[in-house]
Each structure stands twice: as C-alpha cells, then as structure tokens.
C-alpha cells in the first residue's frame, strides 16, 4: 500500500515485504513507483546497505557468550533441528539454479551464509532461519529483497537515504520472546 501525506512537497509511506523483489515488482502499482522516483529522500525500516547495521543484526542474533543452542533447546528438538539442517545441506546443491552457479555461488558457501554458526544463535533467529531454508527461497538467493533493491536504487539515483529504526529496536523485541512464544 502507498499512503500519501498531503503537504508541499508530498510525503509517502510505502509498506514493503521482505521477499525477493522479482516476486512482487510487477505487481507494484505505477503510482508507487512514480512516488519513489519523484522522492528526493527515502527512508527504510533499517539501512541494509550499512555494514554496521548488518554486523549489528548478526551479533544481536547470538546467545550470550558461552551458551550454545544445545544448552537451551530440549534434547529431542535439538536433534531434529540438526537432522533437518543436515538434510538441507544435502539438498542445497540440487535446489540451486544454473544462474546462481553461473554467478559463482556454491552450495557450501550459501549454506554457511544462511546457517553458519546456527548453534550459537538464539532460538527465535534459528526459527526464522529455518523458515527461509526452503527450495523456493534458496532458488531466489542472490536476488535482493524489495527493501534492499529499493535502497540500492535510491543510492544509484543519488537520493538521500536513511533508516527509521535502529538494529536494537528490531532485535530486542524478538530477543525478549520467551521459549514458548518462539
């Protein structure tokens, strides 16, 4: 949806979704694309082009120092998770597209990029990671999600960019969920 705040110049609020932009780009109305092009400043949920944002997201996902997922998950759930990730690692080469391989993307690299250090992550982040380890999601890896695509386009068009949230504002609520909520 695109909301317009009627003022001079107008301001817009556009709701995005965290999926590869190629899945939704053709369905974004022309008025939303026109508003993006007409805007001189664009602000996103987080600045996904900022290395500090990316490293902050990575570090907030980790369990406190010295803890491992095996210490916090019930034994049987941990075993099921490990078996599932072993299965994903086995299937990953079959799920990858020729285009991904042509760009030099290897299954082991992709698995480590998504699931690397999973034994040190908090359960909520492991759950989100597992939800993204499907054949459909793997086939779209290498294509930026809509937010990142728009941020890259904004930078290419020399627009002023920024973020409306900090990493902590994203991380702390998720990290505050108890085990039964996760």
UniProtKB/TrEMBL annotation:
Cofactor(s), by name: Co(2+); Mn(2+)
Main location as per UniProt: membrane
BP-aspect Gene Ontology terms: negative regulation of Wnt signaling pathway; proteolysis; Wnt signaling pathway
One Gene Ontology CC term in the entry: organelle membrane
Topological type in the membrane: Single-pass type I membrane protein
Keywords: Cell membrane, Glycoprotein, Hydrolase, Membrane, Metal-binding, Metalloprotease, Protease, Signal, Transmembrane, Transmembrane helix, Wnt signaling pathway
EC number, as in UniProt: 3.4.-.-
Co-factor note (free text): Divalent metal cations. Mn(2+) or Co(2+).
Annotated GO MF terms: metal ion binding; metalloendopeptidase activity; Wnt-protein binding
UniProt entry tagged with the keyword Transcription: no
A Pfam match: TraB_PrgY_gumN
Annotated localization: Cell membrane; Membrane
Cited InterPro entries: TIKI1/2-like, TraB/PrgY/GumN_fam
Coiled coil regions in record: none
Described function: Metalloprotease that acts as a negative regulator of the Wnt signaling pathway by mediating the cleavage of the N-terminal residues of a subset of Wnt proteins. Following cleavage, Wnt proteins become oxidized and form large disulfide-bond oligomers, leading to their inactivation.
PANTHER family xref list: METALLOPROTEASE TIKI, METALLOPROTEASE TIKI2
Family that this chain belongs to: Belongs to the TIKI family.
Name this protein carries in UniProt: Metalloprotease TIKI
Annotated organism of origin: Turnix velox (Little buttonquail)
Encoding gene, per UniProt annotation: Trabd2b_0
């Amino acid at each position: 949806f695109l909301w317009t705040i009627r003022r001079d110049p107008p301001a817009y609020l556009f709701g995005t979704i965290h999926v590869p932009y190629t899945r939704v780009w053709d369905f974004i109305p022309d008025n939303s694309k026109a508003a993006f092009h007409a805007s001189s400043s664009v602000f996103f949920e987080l600045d996904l082009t900022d290395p500090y944002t990316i490293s902050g997201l990575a570090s907030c996902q980790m369990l406190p120092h010295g803890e491992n997922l095996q210490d916090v998950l019930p034994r049987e759930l941990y075993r099921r998770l490990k078996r599932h990730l072993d299965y994903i690692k086995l299937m990953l080469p079959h799920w990858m597209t020729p285009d991904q391989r042509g760009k030099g993307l290897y299954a082991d690299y992709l698995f480590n990029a998504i699931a690397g250090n999973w034994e040190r992550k908090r359960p909520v982040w492991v759950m989100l990671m597992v939800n993204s380890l499907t054949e459909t999601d793997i086939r779209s890896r290498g294509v930026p999600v809509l937010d990142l695509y728009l941020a890259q386009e904004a930078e290419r068009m020399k627009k002023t960019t920024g973020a409306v949230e900090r990493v902590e504002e994203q991380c702390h609520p998720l990290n505050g969920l108890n085990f039964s909520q996760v």
